[in-house]
Amino acid sequence: MRLRWTAFAVPMKLPSITSKVLLVVFAFTTLWVALVVAAPMMVPAGTLQDLSGVVGGHENEYQFESLSPLPHAIYWMGDGECHQIADRSYFINDNQMPFCARDLGLFLGIALGFGIASFYRLKINPLLLLLGLIPMGIDGGVQLITSYESNNPLRLITGIIAGVSMALLIGSFVLVIQEDRASRRRKSVPVQMQKPEQE
Question: Which of 49, 104, 145, 174 places its Cα 20 to 30 Å from the Cα of 120?
C-alpha cells in the first residue's frame, strides 16, 4: 500500500510598495528605534543610572563625556528633547534609556505606522486617526495637573497608539499628494493624434 502525499501550494503575494518616500521614512524611523534601544547596550553596565532633568535642557552632559560618539549623540539628543525622569524610563543593561517610556512608544508607533503606510493603502478618516492622540493626551494631561501617576507600560502603549496614528495620518497625506501630482502629470501630457494609415 502506497501513501500519496498531496502538495498544497498556497499562493503568496507580497504587498507592493505604496510610496518610495514612505518606505525611506519607514527605514529611517526603524533605524532610529534600533539605535535608541541599542544605545544603553553600547555603554558599560551601570554607567547611566539617573538622567532626570527637564525638557529642553542639557543637564547630563557631564555623564556623557566618556561615551563613544554614537551613544553620546543619542543620549545628548534625549537629554535635550526629553525629561528623562528615571522612574518614567526603561532600563537596559542596567543603564537608563535615552528617552522616556512614552517617547519610546511614540518612536515605535511612528515606525510601525510608516511601515503599514509603506505597503498598504488605507483609506481612513483623518478624524479617526486624531482620536489615537486622545489616550496619550488623557494619560499625560491628567498626570500633569493632578496627583495621578501613570506607569511605564501605559505610557508605552499610549505612545505607540499616538505614534501609529500620526504616521498613518502623515502617510495618507503623502499618498494623496503623490496621487494628485501623478494625476496632474497625466492630464498635462498632450494627446497624440493617430496618423492615418497609408494605403
Answer: 104
Cell triple for 28:
529611517
Q: Is the pLDDT of residue 12 over 70?
A: no
Distance of CA 169 to the CA centre of its chain: 12
**So what's the pLDDT on residue 193?**
46
Percent of all residues in the chain with a pLDDT value above 90, rounded to a whole number: 57
pTM score, two decimals?
Answer: 0.83
Tell me the mean pLDDT in the region 74-87.
93
The Cα 31–Cα 112 span in angstroms is: 12
Please say if the pLDDT value at position 3 is more than 70. Answer: no
- C-alpha torsion 157→158→160→161, nearest 10: 120
Handedness of CA 91, 92, 98, 103 (dihedral sign): negative
Phi, psi of 145 (to 5 degrees): -105, -5
Q: Are 161 and 109 in contact (CB under 8 A)?
A: yes
Within 13 Å and on the Cβ side, how many CA atoms surround 186? Answer: 6
- Place 43 in a pLDDT band, splitting at 50, 70 and 90: very high
What string of H, E and C letters represents the secondary structure of 67-121? CCHHHHHHHHHHHHHCCCCHHHCCEECCEECCCCHHHHHHHHHHHHHHHHHHHCC
Alpha-carbon distance 20 to 13, whole Å?
Answer: 19
